[in-house]
């Protein structure tokens, strides 16, 4: 996408520059400019891009999977409460997940709209009053990832961050068994 | 005034179809019509694809009926025809997900 | 009559009286256009200063320059000012000044409305600035998402300032849009058929049409949120059957078209300037008109792309993702039509062209990142990050501010009558261009690194520091550039040689007058034969001043201009527009009193300004009209035409029709909200439904039918039946509202309350209109020829009848069925 955009930008700049550099008015027909450059070219590029985006989007949806882990995240001004095993266990401002397995985060809010975003683990999703939204994330390898609240939520918005701790298989087992992380 | 109506007809029809399909998608998921099916046909998908095809037929007819004026008439008759075609193309493009993507997920 | 004599006579009729009284009473479009432009530019500078404060805060990590409470006010006000108080009024002012001149007319269709629009804008904008100076500025973001902006989380007066101030300004935008649409469709030079209109008029026609459809949803949203905040009607409170996402739908239903509403006038400026700079004609006029129409419509199919992360099913996102990529195509048609135009001519690198090149580079980049965020998975990553901040500034500054700077240099001679002399502008351009790109290009990168929007600070050592510091430096370079621009322009106002007529040798009519133009624009109105009248006849300006066109003989002290057939541009009738009056400023003050009383929570006093507005509306209509028929009057040579008072559909009828179109959008959005809450919102069904009654429903429907069907009867019967039908509607609505459950209990009840209130308001307006017609007929204002007033009143009655029928059906029938 970046390379394609750069190429298009350079093309447009080049076409404009040439309009000033050329000696005499010399224009291809209206058909070339409007039909060719204005219609056919963007339609081709955009259709391909849209199809690609939709296919990827379908793949990112929270579908059923055998090794799926489900955690809950309740955001509030300005704290994150993460719950495991149907809410039996809680952690604050730090989410524990297994690495290499798909994780569904069920998002709710106690007050205003917040958004869960861990830039290195994939997309973001809003926590909306009265609803439960599900975001699928997956960490490729164990480690600690920084998360932020992406939706403006008042005075504490900038400090409304959290951490995601992705465990290896052994670490996740230990965490699930109830050891303090 | 008829000219103004013709200029706006195709794209208005697109806007109506687009809103209707989106509204029906929301209603279908809220009322769980995607759990219903008639034989091999999923109720929600049949409804949405049906609306999509209807809108395409209507816009194709509209474009076709504007063609004689576009061939004989002035600039604005050609613009009206082009706008109807644009409406048809837009309906085909924006309605395509009804047939191809997963429902209510 | 010689040219000088004509000038004196016309000036006596059209000039505003000197002194402050004249300034308050003026309805002249040139004066009001300039006032709007200057006011909007002052707001631009205020918004710019706020932007610099934001950049000062973000320049270093952990900065203590502004606390989060102040910072939240800064970015909320920056966004709100730039969107509502700068961009829209700026192009409105430009259009108000320029359109009549380009279309070959002497004023807008509704000069008093033009003035009312400016006063409303000035007062509403001032409310927000006062709030800011008092430290009470709105702080929930320019998008005001509920429930953060609702009473429990924003208990102060801050959000009320936004809701009431912006709604006040929106009223001005709606009435101005009606003014613009009717003026373009009806008030042109004879011969100017739709396909000979300058492209700028096409752009403004579509823009104003979009405003009529796009703004009502936001006004509705603001009304609902203010009702929730003031009286506890829970439209957006999930616990009581409301939904915060309803606000987002209503807001973006306005908010996305808004971007194109801002871009299209600027594109119109480009399509006007660029061919002149390239010494050629625009390539593909018909294609561009088609592209404008397509943009106007498609841009309404994008709003959900601001909501890709709120948890809507993927298929629904795909509709909007498809529409968002699709909208790039008409944009591409225009961009390549412009580049093709440059190729087919001999472009010269003059000052306006420099800004147009700045536009091309910046806007194309903004468009490309726009296509990126239209792709759903990419947006899940980029949404609400600094990447989007960068994108939107590339689109809006590239697509609006750069073309407006080009317009400033291109038309400056028109405003000042002076030519550009100093070379400061070139340096200003380069500072602006470099400063802008330095500020915002880096935001793409830091956004992709994970910096969210609207944070007041960030920690050190996560790699954002360097980008933010450079961004801030860039923003100060940009600010220096804008300061130089101001100096450059001011110098020209006060100290530059006079310009000759038509300095760019352009073909459009606005250059066919002396510079700066007189209050009446042109001594006589041309017959237009092509898209570039001045190219056909370079001496047109002299011939018009010498009275060789229409309406060259001033008569009866009337402000006359020509009205034409919409499509063919055939001369249709003479439009006599009202002269200077205090009504606009008084009405704006009374309107303002309503908003201020709401703001101060003196709700029990608000009926006073409402009654005042009804009375002023009456005066407004009563100031027009005549008691005798004048018949056809000469307009040019042997040709004659009727005055607007004696034609079937005068501009007043069209104005009512378009105002009702906007009103219908408001009502449509309200019905959408009702249906949306019912199907989608959590915590439904409500604890109890209203007490429905077939009798009440029947009475209301009968009344609506009678009031609407009365049109075919003779005057006296029509009036009687109309009043009876209207009274029946009023009774049915009152009964329904009386038996509805209390609005604070559940969103269902609140929605019913608003629907009954809306219908009741319109029935009341219809009642006033009918009483007005009754009084006027008895006073002798109507005749077989002067028949427009009853027709306009009938329009309002029909609308009220339709609304009442729908509201009663939508409220009683579901409750009866349950």
UniProtKB/TrEMBL annotation, chain A:
One Pfam family named in its UniProt record: COX2
Gene3D superfamilies named among the record's database cross-references: Cupredoxins - blue copper proteins
UniProt GO BP: ATP synthesis coupled electron transport
GO CC terms, sorted: membrane
Domain (Cytochrome oxidase subunit II copper A binding): residue spans on this chain: 66-178
Sample GO molecular function, one term: cytochrome-c oxidase activity
Stated family: Belongs to the cytochrome c oxidase subunit 2 family.
Name under which the protein is recorded: Cytochrome c oxidase polypeptide II
UniProtKB/TrEMBL annotation, chain B:
Species in which this protein is naturally found: Pacificimonas flava
Regions that span the bilayer: 47-67, 79-96
Name this protein carries in UniProt: Uncharacterized protein
Lineage of the species this protein comes from: Bacteria, Pseudomonadati, Pseudomonadota, Alphaproteobacteria, Sphingomonadales
Keywords on record: Membrane, Transmembrane, Transmembrane helix
Automatic annotation (TrEMBL), chain C:
Its membrane topology: Multi-pass membrane protein
Subcellular location: Cell membrane
Coiled-coil stretches: none
Start and end residues of each Cytochrome oxidase subunit I profile domain: 20-529
This protein's pathway: Energy metabolism; oxidative phosphorylation
Keywords from the UniProt entry: Cell membrane, Copper, Electron transport, Heme, Iron, Membrane, Metal-binding, Respiratory chain, Translocase, Transmembrane, Transmembrane helix, Transport
Pfam families documented for this protein: COX1
EC number from the UniProt entry: 7.1.1.9
Gene Ontology molecular function, alphabetical: cytochrome-c oxidase activity; heme binding; metal ion binding
UniProt GO BP: electron transport coupled proton transport; oxidative phosphorylation; respiratory electron transport chain
Entry GO terms, CC: plasma membrane
Transmembrane segments annotated in the record for this chain: 36-54, 74-97, 118-137, 161-187, 199-225, 259-278, 285-304, 316-341, 353-378, 390-412, 424-446, 466-491, 574-596, 657-677, 721-740, 752-774, 795-817
Protein family membership: Belongs to the heme-copper respiratory oxidase family.
UniProt protein name: cytochrome-c oxidase
Species the sequence originates in: Pacificimonas flava
